[in-house]
């Protein structure tokens, strides 16, 4: 089953919805309500499969070139087989029909899957004289084989109308069909009662046949033999039956209507052998159905896994059966149970698809042992080409507390943003990941830009950092530094001055930046009024000494040559001079008395 | 009981938009467009919902929407808008903006115009050209404004090859959505939680106003303007918070309502019934916010038929409501007083609902579960 077919995608999506709904089913429900719910879920899955089949069938007939038409047709037949198996599993394992209703379910099952009957019926009935149609008796026979006795009787009445000679025989046969005892759904009779009645009816049919009532008409006599469950006669209708399981069900209907589930496999095996007649060997589908009749669930799943290329069917069926508590923890050698193993395989397959990975997330969620680990591995590898997709992936990770993955994805996105010069985006990604290290990197970038250009880029971002400033020291420094510039611009020099000083003394300014800060202090020192107090000036001087005493020993080649050194020394000298002068003024100002 | 029809369409839907009906006509919405994303081949498609003539007494028998036509689209469809009755503008993750033309006579879509390098990180001239996704588009025939992950704002005119105006580096982060305020002004929202108002009459590249929330800089993903009162704007954020802003009243939002549990992707005021607001989110739900006050008794938040979620809608009212006569119910929204009804419209929680649109009594939305939901009885 091709994951990339658009029609199948609907199957994957719809069944994903059913799967998630199933996992959320109430756990407290047990007994009949729960069983009813599980049957409902199973029917939902099947209706999704049928809808998909319908659409594919229409596409196959409408397809223009034979290649795609044949491919679609083969897909339809695969889906049909899948639904056949699922339906049987539903009857045997989920519905767990007891003897009596079991046969009715099996009849429905067969009727549902032999749609040629409807075509044939339409064909014959469309004719003006149905009873003269050459397929007429085929139709009647098939109807009887399928247990659709009411419809068969209608056909017989048409024959009686057209051919008065056989009217009496048709009426007798029709009456026999009408009186056949079957267990109808609302009926409260017990199995023993049914068996008794059925025995009587059987004897009555036998009598009519022995009396030669149907001797004149070979067709009617054949029908009566079928009603009597004559094995040889039924087997002769191989062509009309089409499959061995049809043979089995018909045989059961007319010889053992009260068959018990545990007896099914005996009849199944014999029907299979009879049908194949030693000429051909069983196909995979036959093996799967056989395993189902033997109630060997594990074998069914194993055979299906081998036969089908996609894990879809096996994953959903196994999960449903697991919810029915039918699977013993069939441990595989690496420890996880079968359901989980299959679900993991299926979900990994989904992740390989460019679009269906979102479905895979939910499947991993419901694998208790290895689901989380697998999800962590897969989610990091989803390609992220837009921010919106990245946001969705991040949301998946955050909802499951996968902080490592969040961090790594945000880091990738932030690096991309920095490379594209989107510093605001980079910052917002590092805030989301609470990645202090990256926030520091972004701030360094801002500061470097400032040093190179003399002004800040992206003021809208820095001015409005808000509480995100606390994420990293460097970021806080950036925010506060910008605030200093703002204060300076507003001429609030005293506030600006103390802010500047605190930036240096509180150690949040990087060493490399101290020179710039001190240089920024210069104009403040040169103002007419004294801005820095004596205390503050001492602090500044200490900072300057801290800065310069490291200089002679650090022998890294600057690459700038002796000129840079000159600039540096000039700056330092100017600073020293300004600081000294300010100190002098400050001491005087603080020493003199206030007031006139 | 609202009837909502779902259809699985084999592609994840990123945007859905109703075709506008001619003003003054009594037509109801009939056609909508969708864009897909995350596919190897993405499509812009046009769909039609059934005739109203076939609705029987139960209301809406054949509610299934049918595909009219589709056209391949290069890259994810990031945003979609109808320019007029026949033309659709699509914003792509490859940074291009395409105008599709719908030919009614033979039901096809064709590309009428395309600006391929509308958004980029490094320009087409340089050797390391890298494109940037275009994230939002808004139209006011013939003007088209686009914004993208590159922080750029473009103003195009439908028939001109070059852009009329481009504001480079309008924002240092990603611009997520854009809407018109008064005609020469637009409002953008970005991923550091700021709303910026731009006036195209002014030269220069600075916004004329910046509004933001103090506190955590939560990215804003969607914005919509009140249809009648052009100063009221609703935004949705990454934490699922719905905010209502009055752009005249300073920089704070008027109300903040805690809504979804994950990113809110779209917010829409109902165009003819602006007391109703619709939001959809990554958490898979679509909510209908009803703040109309003309119903006399609304003693509880539960009304029959709707699926209500017990939510904590916490609101902060800005007391600077200086113009009481112009006060709409949104500005004084206080859901604790039981005046606001909030209904969840989707029957089951699905994967993310990426987009929604409302017109008249019809609503359409698209999800990541590859399904489109349509209802024609919003207000029943």
From TrEMBL, chain A:
Domain of life, per UniProt, equals Eukaryota
Instruction: Give the protein's recorded name.
Output: Nuclear pore complex protein Nup85 isoform X2
Q: Which organism is it from?
A: Echinops telfairi
Instruction: Identify the taxonomic lineage of the organism of origin.
Output: Eukaryota, Metazoa, Chordata, Craniata, Vertebrata
As recorded in Swiss-Prot or TrEMBL, the protein's gene is named: NUP85
UniProtKB/TrEMBL annotation, chain B:
Q: Where in the cell is it found?
A: Nucleus
Chain's gene name: NUP43
Task: Enumerate the SUPFAM superfamilies for this protein.
Answer: WD40 repeat-like
Which SMART domains does the UniProt record give?
WD40
List keywords of the entry alphabetically.
Nucleus, Repeat, WD repeat
Q: What are the ranges of the WD repeats?
A: 213-255, 257-299
Matching entries from InterPro entries are given as: WD40/YVTN_repeat-like_dom_sf, WD40_repeat_CS, WD40_repeat_dom_sf, WD40_rpt
| Protein name as annotated | Nucleoporin Nup43
